[in-house]
Amino acid sequence: MKIGIFTAMEKEAASFLQEDAVKETVGAFTLYKFMLGKHSAVLCCPPSVGEIAASAACQLLITKYNVDCILNFGVVGALTPKASVQSFVYVKDVVHYDMDVSLADGFPVGKYGCFDDVAVQCDKSLLNKALHFNNLPAVRCASADKFVGTVEGKTDLNIKFGADICDMESAGILFACRFNNVPCLLVKCISDSLTDGFEEYCNNVHNACKGFFTFAEQLANNM
User: Fold this and answer.
1) Is the pLDDT reported for residue 202 higher than 80?
2) Whole-prediction pTM value?
3) Which of 19, 30, 105, 144 sits between 20 and 30 A of 41, alpha carbons compared?
């Protein structure tokens, strides 16, 4: 199996960059090839954060590198008091909450005509394998090109969309994979709590990313 790995930022990719990783560049994207457990892997780092860069990176992994699945590792903000900082969660579905064609098509905010619901499901088979390996919470992610750093903003996403976490790339990853019929698994580590914002994120982001490679390697060995 060839596994594609996407991280939105270099700090999220750091633990994957072992000495034997082979680096190459395609356009503005930096990629690293290495072994992940018993599988070959290629990790893509985009030139920017955000949904568009994430979607383009995943399309590159699918089209050029013919990956069989994509694993995403990234940090997220918590939208409820239940989630503890530096804990891991899986994403079961994603709401792209700044999608709004309600005045044109009458769809609810976040709804795409090509999907059945506002919340777009992640691949259930891959998620079930991950849950069998490590029975973490499987949560809903609210995703858009916006850093949400206030209690009011986070609470609003939880109330409107029933989301538990938020980030800036999950919609781009999931939609690219859904459009190409490639399964993906989104694994997130919480960097900032409901009541804190950017300062807490800065204090926790590096520690939150440290365990990504170990988690990915153990997961790959169970796939």
Assistant:
1) no
2) 0.94
3) 144
